[in-house]
Amino acid sequence: MASPDPAAALLALDRTHVWHPYASMNDPAPTRLVTGASGAHLELADAGRVVDGMSSWWAAIHGYRHPALDAALRSRVDEFAHVMFGGLTHEPAVRLAARLVEVAPDGLERVFLADSGSVSVEVALKMVLQAQRGRGRPERTRLLTVRGGYHGDTFGAMAVCDPVGGMHTMFRDVLPEHVFADRPPAPGDAAAVERWSQSFRALASAHAHELAAIVVEPLLQGAGGMHVYDAACLRVMREVADEHGLFLVLDEIATGFGRTGTFFAAEAAGVSPDVLCVGKALTGGYLTLAAVLCTDGVARDLSASESGVLMHGPTFMGNPLACAVALASLDVLATGAWRADVARIGSGLATGLAGCRGLPGVADVRTLGAVGVVQLDHPVDTGKATQAALDEGVWLRPFRDLVYTMPPYVCTDDDVARICAGVAAAAAVA
């Protein structure tokens, strides 16, 4: 009698009991079993060694089993794995907060350590709402954002995601109704930027009396459609926020730590926010951790609200293991090697994906930093596209009408070429 296949047994249990993201339990999509990972590669039980074109949802920027990050975890776990952050503190959290202030845009001096990107957005929204109350403006309870945005899957975050074209439309009737401007135009069209600017300014002026803040992803909208927009639009948002007494909240969860070619995407526009959300690559993809940074002004205004304190406190806030590995990740970034790597990967993606423009059903091809996107004129057949990429030795996770990649910065030129072949194969069958 043949011995049972351990991989098949695990996958059977997975299919029966494990609910994966954006998946049905009645008819679950196939999952692949990861048996190992190193550098920019995953080992899959059914496909062998493949290049990870997704950086584990954009987080594993240094790849897997990075020696410096591994060492940071091992060293910290010998001290203690976790303590509550209420009334206590510890060195990794303190040093991480100080380091984030050093690398953040000017003016951001206060740091709240959160559990995940979505939670950091929730905290940021609380911050600006409480700060407006502290300013004596409790009627300012709505937020101004743009179409095409995505900020997370928790309730406050869902409310500032696109309510029509986003993935949370079924919840529209139970979410707060905020104010949505048109999606900012793509770079390079000055006339379109001017038209958008006039419309945005008019909308903000009409609702200024009830608005607390502007909340956007700078330059690159992530899960809302991987749309790249003109940096001039971000400068307009800063001007509008200042004109009407609004806070500017920038969600750099997907774009932070070099992904778009500058350390933070907002740098390309020369803009500093009042509140900044970071996550994903903060720990190099090792552990869940996010942070919310704000100005002294936001902190003072918030502290003048009736509660006097920020009404949020996650159980695992400031986890020492996560903070230690985040510090190690920032040390790796501090060498500056990421700049050349992102530029090299970006060049490889621009060249390697150019041929996709001639494929049937392709509507657009765009790149920004270490991001490559092939947009189709129809929804992706995820199963077929994923398998086509795997046949080329690449792991991708297409969604909606997009086949895209955000590779680890440690990818070689050969890895990038393989990723481009995988994207092209996926787009051709999707």
Would you write up a description of this structure?
By secondary structure, the protein is an alpha/beta fold. Helix content is 38%, strand content 17%. It has 13 helices and 16 strands. It has helices spanning 6-17, 55-58, 67-77, 91-103, 117-134, 155-159, 190-207, 231-244, 296-303, 320-334, 337-353, 382-391, 413-429; strands at 34-38, 41-44, 48-52, 108-114, 142-146, 179-181, 211-216, 220-221, 227-228, 247-251, 275-278, 290-295, 362-367, 372-376, 394-395, 402-405. The strands form four sheets. A seven-stranded mixed β-sheet has the order 4-12-11-10-7-5-6, sandwiched between helices. Strands 1-2-3-15 form a four-stranded mixed β-sheet. A three-stranded antiparallel β-sheet has the order 13-14-16. Helix 4 (91-103) runs parallel beside helix 10, helix 5 (117-134) packs across helix 9 (296-303) and helix 7 packs parallel to helix 8 (231-244). It is globular and about 70 Å long. The mean pLDDT is 96. This is Adenosylmethionine-8-amino-7-oxononanoate aminotransferase.
